Amino acid sequence: MRTSIATVSLSGSLTEKLTAASRAGFDGVEIFENDLLASPLSPEEVRARCADLGLSIDLYQPMRDIEAVPAEEFARNLRRARHKFELMRRLGADTVLVCSSVHPLAVDDDSLAARHLSQLADLAQESGVRVAYEALAWGRHVNTYTHAWSIVEAADHPALGTCLDSFHILSRGSDPKGVADIPGEKIFFLQLADAPLLAMDVLQWSRHYRCFPGQGGFDVAGLVRQVLRTGYDGPLSLEVFNDVFRQAEAGPTAVDAHRSLLVLQETVGVAAPPAPVVPTGVAFAELVTPDAEPVAAVLGALGFSRTARHRSKPVDLWQQGEARILVNTSGAARRTGTGLAAIGLESPDPAGAARRAEALLAPVLPRRRAAEDAPLDAVAAPDGTALFFCATDRPELPNWRADFADVAGESGGAGVHRIDHLALTQPWHHYDEATLFHRSVLGLHAQESVDVADPYGLMRSRAVTNADGSIRIALGGGAAPTDDTVHAQHIALATDDVVAAARRFRQAGGRLLPIPANYYDDLAARHEFAVGELETYRELGILYDRDAHGEFRHCYTLTVGRVFFELVQRDGYRGYGAQNAPVRLAAQHTARAVIGG
Question: Where is Mg(2+) annotated to bind (predicted)?
């Protein structure tokens, strides 16, 4: 289906918004009136710019407070409408959005509203324009789509139809099944937005918290299915008011927006991109660093051994059990500092996973490699992390491990057997995008989002995982722009005995994150422990949590650059220790202040 986006959904000037929409792959745009008023371009120049970019102008919006008002006010409305219809002729737009009135003088009189809209449609028809009447969820008298349709039906004018908006319908809890009563040809436009499920004033909810389909809690797909059954053949168009999106760069936001519509079309069965290929494990995590020595010291203390070196690049492989860490000291690492740069994902079909990613607009990363290097496909996640689709030790497929030559390393081992999960800090304005990306591109399941109190703000965290938990990625980000230096990435390593692993780490010279004594006093009040158990946790800085499925014990190393490690012992537990996250974050702030970095 054709796709469109309202310019109000993106940041920047009108020219920047149009360029971003075109580059993201949209077919058309809704021109928001304020964007046109603030643009130095004439309507003719906007029309030409859209044509050059391959964009149609699908809607001009909005016209407000038109119907069911006193005669003098309605006369002024018609005068305003004549001017706007002439403007639309110059723009090349043939449909105008009219929102249900919130005017304080508007009266609750459906027959008057129908007559006024019919007169407006007469005027529009003379100018080659159609009027799409929409029920605002906070409309003074008309605030449901069924009420708006009854007025349109009563007016019975060929140039008057309705606009359905998923936010206005679903935020009020209206039943989308009523859409079946509207003939498809009378649905002039369909606007889509999702939103988190919040208990707040609907106007504020609409103006600040809308998001793209698949990023909130509404059943947008269910509504779209109802609309398509009517025979509606217009575009799927996004109208999203969101404070974060309007501050973020327009280009990535537009890509995220278009991806949401591609996934929505797949969900409702009108498009068939390559099927998701869900990853089955973590092949490796790659760290970049300007100085390998501090990273090597931590890995060695954790029981990892340097087992191989890349044949053509300054990359070492450190391994313990099935946990593999690549340490890259290339020139790029010297510019960016120590950080988690890439993740290798085990895939049953690496080529299919890459096709899926590319079809859903994930940027394919160029890769410098020697002729003999394995041809691995990689795409960029929203935070810039490179995701490689791997098939380790499968002779029928290219194997990244063949790019490494074994080296004689000291045998280590501290009980780590695999990577339990990876935590990636998202730029605050890409948090929702990251969730949609990992769900749609990788086929992972998104768990509930949780808020975590940080000493200097509020963080959000949401885990994405496959069915058996062999892939777990925790996506974290600030709810507003903050200092992200402590909100570092981390690699959690699974062990069957976190106490023994922590002791080995300390005995090998490693430094664990100190945890305040007050935490353990509270822990003693909330849980019962065996004799000496709590004292051991206090000594080693081990944190504890439990859920309905079991227990969780974990501790942290000090941060190296922007990365730290976590040792975790799961005994049936399914979470990530969110209860303990505020304590960890505060301890990291304190440690950074003491260390001076």
Answer: 421, 490, 566
CA distances from 62 to 8, 45, 256, 485, 556 (A): 11, 21, 24, 43, 53
Listing DSSP states for 434-498 in one string gives HHHHHHHTT-PEE---EEEEETTEEEEEEEEE-TTSSSEEEEEEESSS---SSS-EEEEEEES-H
Distance of CA 508 to the CA centre of its chain: 40
- Distance in angstroms (rounded) separating the CA atoms of residues 393 and 397: 8
The answer to whether residues 235 and 2 touch, using CB atoms and an 8 Å cutoff, is yes
Q: Tell me if 462 sits within 8 A of 435, measured CB to CB.
A: yes
- Digit-coded pLDDT (tens) for 310-343: 998 999 999 999 999 999 998 665 666 789 999 9
Give the C-alpha separation, 393 to 381, whole Å.
Answer: 25
Among the ranges given (127-136, 277-286, 398-407), the one the predictor scored with the smallest mean pLDDT: 398-407
Backbone angles phi, psi at 192, to 5 degrees: -125, 140
- Please state the residue numbers annotated as binding site for Mg(2+): 421, 490, 566
Q: Which residues make up each annotated binding site?
A: 134, 165, 191, 239, 421, 490, 566
Amino acid at 564: F
Q: 3-class DSSP state for residue 545?
A: strand
**pLDDT tens figures, 124-169:** 999 999 999 999 999 999 999 999 999 999 999 999 999 999 999 9
Range scoring the smallest mean pLDDT among 12-16, 209-213, 251-255, 441-445: 209-213
As a whole number of Å, the end-to-end CA separation of the chain is: 52
As given in the structure block, the two tokens for residue 347 are 């895939």
Known binding-site residues for a divalent metal cation equal: 134, 165, 191, 239
Domains assigned to the chain: 3-268 (3.20.20.150), 281-406 (3.10.180.10), 418-595 (3.10.180.10)
Residue 383: how many CA atoms within 13 Å on its side-chain side? 27
Cβ atoms of 14 and 55 within 8 Å: the answer is: no
